[in-house]
Amino acid sequence: MKFYQMMPKIELHLHLEGAIPYDVLFDLIQKYGGDAEIKSVDDIAKKFVFRDFKHFIELWVWKNKFLREYEDFRLIAKNVALDLKSQNVKYAEIFISPSPFKRLGLSCAGIIEAVSEGFKAAGGIRISIIVDMVRDNGPAEALSTLYEIEEVRRCGIIGIGLGGSENEYPPSLFPELFEKARNMGFKTSVHSGEASGAASVDEAVKLLRPDRIGHCVRAAFDGALLKRIVESNISVELCPISNLRTGSVIAAELYPLDKFVESGINFSINTDDPKMFGNSLVDEYYLIDKKLGFGRSKTVEFILNSISGAWISVEDKKTMREEFEKEIEIIKKNETNCVKS
Ligand SMILES: [Zn+2]
């Protein structure tokens, strides 16, 4: 575990609202009058145990009740960034879903500005913003959010995502959103193959033509589809422990990473909603090394390969990879010296 804690890492599929450190969320709950079930910070972790994907969405909505002012977004952004820094995460592309907060009188632009200020206040970590549209609010709402964020794209927005209830709101509702986002110069990612099956992923590939697919786990056994994803130059954002917690995968040992590796698909390893699932990138890599049996050198390769799917320039990817390799060499050397002494 310590080895993966020290490793330089990146996150490409992480939701700001699912990564709020428990002590910060506890303070926010107290700020708004508390919740009878939550008497201590520990009670938050106990509450975040899910029966299924639907229950996860219910708890997601419960937690969001305690985000009401721009200041709250500044606070969580700063603390999420500090938390990532403490895990030696060097770069992150973080989803934020501003539209559910419009009903409180907050604007998407104002939320993005607050989040950007929070990230900057943490300092020492490079973070880009992906504005996540909520399927459940329908395509018209997603389009209106897209136009709203245009005015604050200088805050570090690099792309859009599409999350929410995958089964009820299929890809066929959102081609216009993806087309418009592309025309505006945004990168695109879609949550697909998490709660629904390979047919939904196939539809997402054909109709949305995304740059990346989040999860994709339920398409892992469809070799022909994975081949089409590779040919379409789409990267996948894998989230093993998240899929385990929401029941997409029934046992950690059964996570089909081998299928993605065999397909030659470009993938990154991510935590999704770490404070709701009780995971970290260290846990993810430890699982891959030990429980999935890939071993350390292959797992380190996966850490480096995660950089390939990042929405940064080719030069930046090259530089980041070189910096990671240098740091990894030092970590390995120190480890060898420790063993010798
Ligand atoms: Zn997600």
What does this structure look like?
The structure is a single chain. The protein is α/β, with parallel strands linked by helices and 341 residues long. The chain has a single domain, classed as Metal-dependent hydrolases (TIM Barrel, Alpha-Beta Barrel), CATH 3.20.20. The protein is 51% helix and 14% strand. It has 16 helices and eight strands. It has an eight-stranded parallel β-sheet with strand order 1-2-3-4-5-6-7-8. β4, α8 and β5 form a beta-alpha-beta unit. The radius of gyration is 19 Å and the shape is globular. The two termini are 21 Å apart. The relative contact order is 0.13. Zinc ion (ZN) binds next to β1. Zinc ion binds next to β1.
Task: Give a quick set of tags describing it.
8 strands, 341 residues, alpha/beta, TIM Barrel
Give the structural class: alpha/beta
Rounded mean pLDDT is: 95
Query: How far apart, in Å, are the first and last alpha carbons?
Result: 21 Å
Q: What does the overall shape look like?
A: globular
Give, in spatial order, the strands making up the sheet with the most strands. 1-2-3-4-5-6-7-8
Kindly estimate the percentage of residues that lie in beta strands according to DSSP.
5-15%
CA-based gyration radius: 19 Å
Helix content: 40-55%
Number of helices: 16
How do the helices and strands follow one another from N- to C-terminus? Answer: HEHHHHEHEHEHEHEHEHHEHHHH
CATH topology: TIM Barrel
The CATH superfamily is known as: Metal-dependent hydrolases
What is the CATH architecture annotation?
Alpha-Beta Barrel
Unreliable runs, pLDDT <50, ≥5 residues?
none
Total strand segments: 8
* Ligands and ions found: zinc ion
Give the tally of structural domains.
1
CATH class call = Alpha Beta
